[in-house]
Structure formats: C-alpha cells, structure tokens
Design goal:
Blueprint (H helix, E strand, L loop, with lengths): L1 H31 L16 E7 L4 E7 L3 H4 L4 E2 L11 E6 L20 E6 L2 E13 L13 E9 L6 E9 L2
Parallel strand pairs: 2-3, 4-7
Antiparallel strand pairs: 1-2, 1-5, 3-4, 5-6, 6-8, 7-8
Length: 176
C-alpha cells in the first residue's frame, strides 16, 4: 500500500517529467519557426503542445497540451478543447491541471492573488493575463467554462490537496 502511495505522489512525476521534456522541445521549435496564416482557424490536436504556462509568483514554467482527458493530463496541464485559444481575440481559455500527482503542476495555485501575472507563450506570441479572483466550486459546476466576450483565462484544479471534493478556480483577464 505504501509503495502505491509513493508511486502516485512521486513516481507519476517521472512520466510527466519525460513527457514535458519532449513537449518543451517540440514547442520551442514551433515558437522559433511559427506557423503563418489565419490564427483564429488554427487548432492543436489532442496531446500536442499548445503553450508554455508561466507564473512567476509560484515559479511555474510548464507546457500546456491540448485536451483534458486522463491520458492528456498525465503529460501536463491541459487545455479544455471547447474553449478559446490564447491567440483568439475573445473568449475564455480554460486549462486544467493536477495538484498532487503527475508532477503536480498546479500544487501552489492557491497562492495566486489578485494582480498576479500569468503568461501563455505560444508560436503566435505571448499572451499576458492578470489574476482577478479565485473561487472554489463543486466538481459538477460547469458555468466556469462559459465563454466570455473579452479574452479571459481560467485555471482549474482539485482542492483541497489530496482530495477531489472541490475545484479551485483562478480567473484572469488578458492584459493589453
């Protein structure tokens, strides 16, 4: 039993670390040689690298992938497929991530406060957001994913740590 708990809390991070290394290399190449064309029509396939998620306050610099199914979230934080992309002129970008397993990328998300900066770096440029509020909801609460007219961002994770009883939601608005 102890070995299983150790595997869940630390061993799963080995898989995620390897996946993040490969994704980081791919995304770095894409950023150095960006796509051309109509940005609003560009979509990323499930499991592919989408953006670097950088949050200086909590020393976060991880690759976000497209998709939020179990397989995708093992690689890192995942972009909800039916939400906006960072380069879209309007709409809500939504990203989910693990808090205690698979590298625990959202371990410290609860430390974010109003005014903290979040950056999504993509092959189409960097998109900066500023935290506006945080909230806890039940897992069945889906209104947090409803689209917005202005470009916004939500980050979602389980809370409290080591439990899936509730979801911690970080809301942010795009700057500039």
């Amino acid at each position: 039993m102890l070995a299983y708990v150790v595997w869940l809390l630390w061993g799963t991070g080995i898989y995620t670390s390897r996946a993040q290394g490969e994704l980081r290399e791919t995304l770095t190449t894409q950023i150095e040689d960006p796509r051309s064309g109509e940005l609003s029509r560009t979509r990323t396939l499930p499991g592919e690298a989408l953006a670097f998620l950088r949050i200086p306050k909590i020393d976060m610099d991880v690759v976000v992938i497209e998709g939020t199914d179990i397989r995708d979230l093992k690689k890192g934080p995942g972009h909800y497929r039916d939400t906006a992309y960072p380069w879209d002129d309007d709409g809500k970008v939504a990203i989910a991530g693990h808090r205690t397993t698979y590298g625990a990328p959202f371990w410290s998300l609860d430390k974010l406060r109003r005014g903290d900066r979040i950056t999504l770096a993509t092959e189409f440029g960097d998109f900066d957001y500023q935290v506006t509020r945080t909230r806890e909801v039940v897992p069945t609460e889906t209104t947090i994913l409803q689209q917005t007219k202005d470009p916004t961002l939500v980050l979602t994770t389980c809370t409290p740590r080591f439990s899936a009883a509730r979801r911690l939601i970080i809301f942010a608005e795009r700057m500039g």
